[in-house]
Write a structure and sequence with these properties.
By secondary structure, the protein is mostly helical. It has helices spanning 4-22, 46-62, 67-89, 91-97, 104-132, 136-170. Keywords: Coiled coil.
């Protein structure tokens, strides 16, 4: 690097990149985001890579005695900045894709809890209608519906208990 304008431009790119990364949620990825030839950092957060870029920029600023090393380091910095800019620009897409999958047993448990709640509401409704039913035929019909709903509720609670029992064994 022979001109200070190149260093200033790199500095501006790093500042802009830092601002861009600060606006993003920076969760850890499941695995390193970049190849080991591009970044030496073992971290998986965007800030880890930004820190490495800033360290390389400091080395570049201090290492003016060896022009070959400075040129290599400047090219590496440009490659690192470009890669991190691409990664940061796709971060919102990656966050949606990398969300952990919900636990199957938890999904089933929530589903059964919802069924239980809805069945109980239906039973309560039928009991209210039974209390207000005037004819014997209507009362018998509502009693049959209540028996069927209570049977469904019992089976739902058994399934819920089985899921919770399996879940407790896994924990």
């Amino acid at each position: 690097m022979k001109t200070p304008s190149t260093r200033e431009r790199l500095s501006q790119l790093i500042v802009a990149l830092r601002q861009q990364i600060l606006t993003l949620p920076d969760g850890a990825a499941r695995q390193p985001r970049f190849d080991r030839q591009l970044f030496l950092s073992k971290g998986t957060r965007l800030h880890d890579y930004l820190d490495e870029i800033e360290q390389n920029f400091q080395q570049l600023s201090q290492n003016q005695a060896n022009p070959g090393r400075a040129a290599w380091l400047a090219q590496r910095l440009v490659d690192q900045i470009a890669a991190l800019q691409r990664e940061a620009s796709t971060q919102t897409l990656r966050l949606r894709r990398e969300r952990p999958m919900p636990d199957f047993r938890q999904q089933k448990r929530d589903e059964y809890r919802d069924y239980e709640r809805r069945l109980q509401a239906m039973i309560d409704q039928r009991e209210q209608r039974l209390a207000l039913a005037g004819t014997l035929a209507m009362q018998q019909q509502l009693k049959r519906e209540l028996e069927a709903l209570e049977g469904r509720l019992a089976r739902c609670r058994q399934a819920l208990h089985a899921v919770e029992w399996q879940r407790s064994l896994r924990s």
